[in-house]
Amino acid sequence: MRIFLLGMMGCGKSYWGKVLSKHFSLPFFDLDYEIEFDQNRTIGQIFETEGETYFRNLETEILKRFEKKDDFILALGGGTPCFNNNIEWVSKMGESIWINESPETIRERLLPERAHRPLLKSLTDESLLQFLKDKIAERTPFYTKAKFIVSGSPITTENFMFIENILDKKRK
After folding, report:
1. Is 32 marked as a binding-site residue?
2. Is 109 annotated as a binding residue?
3. 152 in a labelled binding site
4. Is there a binding annotation on residue 114?
5. Which domains, from first to last, does the chain contain?
6. Is 70 a known ligand-binding residue?
7. 33 is in an annotated binding site
8. Predicted pLDDT of residue 171
9. For the segment 55-113, what is each residue's pLDDT rounded down to a tens digit?
10. CA 161 to mean position of chain CA atoms
């Protein structure tokens, strides 16, 4: 089984990926980490030196390497589904879950780590929430193509129970 987690940065994809990984006994991967490992530099460095277009093409290339793998959970970058028809590819390859966390909760999580996020570095505390609302609105048409949507504020294990039950039945 291939499970792809999508949603905004700070929505909990890595956290929930690890939870689901344990539940389903599947390996967990984080696409951002895979890109950094492959390039031997941070995403921020890639953005700064090569630009977003280069990064998005690289992101797609590394995402598609997962076609050769079976049985995993992969946390996508926040923008991954929005470029290069990645959401269509993901939908064809496995089960997709949009982790739809509130912009307010995401803001609180991202405040301390803004300096490490290329899209957030220059934002003030006040402008961060509006940025998140705008970015979520821009990305929602892609995120809504996910097979499952988990919403809450904050999202809890109970929000995931119906998906776990469905996916458990598919594995049998």
Report:
1. yes
2. no
3. no
4. no
5. 2-171 (3.40.50.300)
6. no
7. no
8. 65
9. 999 999 999 999 999 999 999 999 999 999 999 999 999 999 999 999 999 999 998 88
10. 19
Q: Which has the closest alpha carbon to 155: 104, 79, 117?
A: 104
Q: Is 171 annotated as a binding residue?
A: no
| 169 has a pLDDT exceeding 80 | no
Alpha helices for the chain (secondary structure H)? 13-24, 31-39, 43-50, 52-64, 86-93, 103-110, 125-143, 157-171
- What tokens appear for 106 in the block? 């995401």
* Predicted pLDDT at 53: 95
82 belongs to an annotated ligand binding site: no
- Structure confidence at residue 161 (pLDDT): 75
Distances (CA, A) of 47 to 55, 132, 169: 6, 19, 41
Indicate if the alpha-carbon torsion angle 147, 154, 130, 56 is positive or negative. negative
Distance of CA 3 to the CA centre of its chain: 11
Please give the C-alpha separations between residue 124 and each of 41, 79, 84, 120, 131, in angstroms, as whole numbers: 26, 21, 30, 9, 10
59: Cα separation from own chain's centroid: 12
Structure tokens, 15: 């956290």
Mean pLDDT of the chain: 91
pLDDT recorded at residue 155: 83
